[in-house]
Amino acid sequence: MRINKFLAAAGVASRRDCDKLIEEGKVTVNGTTAVLGQETDESSVVLVEGKQVVLKKNEYYILNKPKGYICSVSDDKGRKTVLDLMPQNVGRIYPVGRLDYDSEGLLILTTDGELAQKLTRPENEIPKTYLVKVEGTLKEADLNPIRSGLEIDGYVTKKCKAHIVETNKAYTKIHITLTEGKNREIRKMFSAIGREVTLLKRIKIGELTLRGLDRGLFRKLSEREVAYLYSL
């Protein structure tokens, strides 16, 4: 493992800030001043400004995010963040990806930057499924433009899966599965076909679901679930 990744995983700082510490000569590995790109492991004695750094085991959580929280570790506007729903002793965890302020559902939080990157890089095309509720009645054919791809904000959305799960005169509920996730993309897609989203909830990442997890609650992911996410 490269030394900057080691330090970041141990909760010292972000990788970029860890690079600065290394460049400033504040990091040693087994008594020798570290250099950028240097490899290290758990058996090495790593010091930052004379204090030993120990690599902690990564933590993984799944949260059923309610509306009214932002997916960030802090907010300069004073809004509640998803970390406000977690115990204070969980350590340096970060939300993986985004659910906007008015959206809810499945959110992963972890200290594992490698898994976070895997799940959020567009080229990995990790499928994420959402429950969408719009006003009024829709037919399956009305979803064809969304399935095929729409031009929004100067780009064309990728093809996706979408099907109606419930419809009546008052509202329609749809399951939609995307392999990309641009800012407010689902809301913009339905706006493009003349429908306003009144509920947006992520219900699956791959086959990982919120089963048994009430709104606002969280639990640790099992080793099997973590291995599954790495396999996507």
Walk me through the topology.
Layout: H1 3-9, H2 15-23, E1 27-29, E2 32-33, E3 46-48, E4 51-53, E5 60-65, E6 94-95, E7 104-110, H3 113-120, E8 128-135, H4 144-148, E9 151-152, E10 155-156, E11 161-167, E12 171-178, H5 185-192, E13 197-205, E14 208-209, E15 218-220, H6 223-231
Parallel strand pairs: 7-13
Antiparallel strand pairs: 1-2, 1-3, 3-4, 5-7, 5-15, 6-7, 8-12, 8-13, 9-10, 11-12, 13-14
Helix pairs in contact: 1-2
Do you know the CATH architecture of the largest domain?
A: 2-Layer Sandwich
Coarse shape = elongated
CATH-defined superfamily of the largest domain: Pseudouridine synthase I, catalytic domain, N-terminal subdomain
Structural class: alpha+beta
Briefly note the CATH topology name of the largest domain. Alpha-Beta Plaits
Describe this structure in words.
The chain has three domains: 3-53, Structural Genomics Hypothetical 15.5 Kd Protein In mrcA-pckA Intergenic Region, Chain A (Roll); 62-122 and 211-231, 2-Layer Sandwich (Alpha-Beta Plaits), CATH 3.30.70.580; 127-205, Alpha-L RNA-binding motif (Alpha-Beta Plaits). Helix 1 crosses helix 2. It is elongated. By secondary structure, the chain is an alpha+beta fold. Strand 11 (161-167) and strand 12 (171-178) form a beta hairpin. It contains six helices and 15 strands. Strands 5, 6, 7, 8, 11, 12, 13, 14 and 15 form a nine-stranded mixed beta sheet that branches.
